[in-house]
Design a protein that fits this description.
This protein is α/β, with parallel strands linked by helices and 184 residues long. It has one domain: 3-Layer(aba) Sandwich (Rossmann fold). It is built from six helices and seven strands, in the order βαβββαββαβααα. Strands 2-3-4-1-5-7-6 form a seven-stranded mixed sheet, sandwiched between helices. A hairpin with a 2-residue loop joins strand 2 and strand 3. The chain starts with a strand and ends with a helix. The model has no long low-confidence stretch (mean pLDDT 96).
């Protein structure tokens, strides 16, 4: 079983915020697959998609960003998912708006949700798709990531959502090195 985790914060207050980049990608992937994440377990919304006998768990933790690892670890343990079969999607202020970067491992880069996942899974060897949201240094970091995309920014960001969704679909039947070579 593969697990694809989109990071974000639950609730209307956080919809369309930069910090919810992972949720936006998961929502678009689910829409493309014709499913919705309506099942709840371990403080998360999820759906198990069956693709030619291969199970793919789509996951949106509802623990709030900084505790995302709690839901990831619970699902990993419950379904006995190997760490190498997990892909996490999250916002990244160090990347320009609209850019995506795929990595097989590394530090959290200051992203608290990714940091919590690394800490609880006890490894930094976690595949991820970093979604560039840019960084306006005149705005406090917390206010910036919890701020909503402008209409113009969302036009640019929707292109990166589509690219990340395509990368995830490609990962269903390709090695992650191949995915990185094609989408980085």
């Amino acid at each position: 079983m593969k697990m694809i985790v989109g990071l974000g914060n639950p609730g209307k207050k956080y919809e369309r915020t930069r910090h919810n980049a992972g949720f936006l990608v998961i929502d678009e992937l689910a829409k493309d697959l014709g499913v919705s994440l309506t099942d709840r377990k371990f403080n998360a919304l999820y759906h198990i998609y069956n693709l030619s006998g291969q199970k793919i768990l789509l996951l949106k933790p509802e623990t709030y960003m900084n505790l995302s690892g709690e839901a990831v670890l619970a699902f990993k343990n419950y379904y006995d998912i190997e760490t190498e079969d997990i892909i996490v999607i999250h916002d990244d202020m160090d990347l320009p708006l609209g850019k995506i970067r795929l990595r097989q491992k590394g530090s959290s880069g200051g992203q608290k949700g990714m940091g919590n996942i690394i800490a609880l899974l006890k490894t930094d060897e976690i595949k991820r798709i970093r979604m560039g949201v840019g960084h306006d240094r005149t705005i406090e970091t917390v206010d910036y990531v919890l701020g909503k995309f402008s209409k113009d920014e969302m036009v640019i960001f929707k292109e990166s959502i589509s690219k990340a969704k395509d990368a995830l679909k490609y990962s269903f039947d390709h090695d992650f090195d191949q995915v990185m070579n094609r989408f980085n």
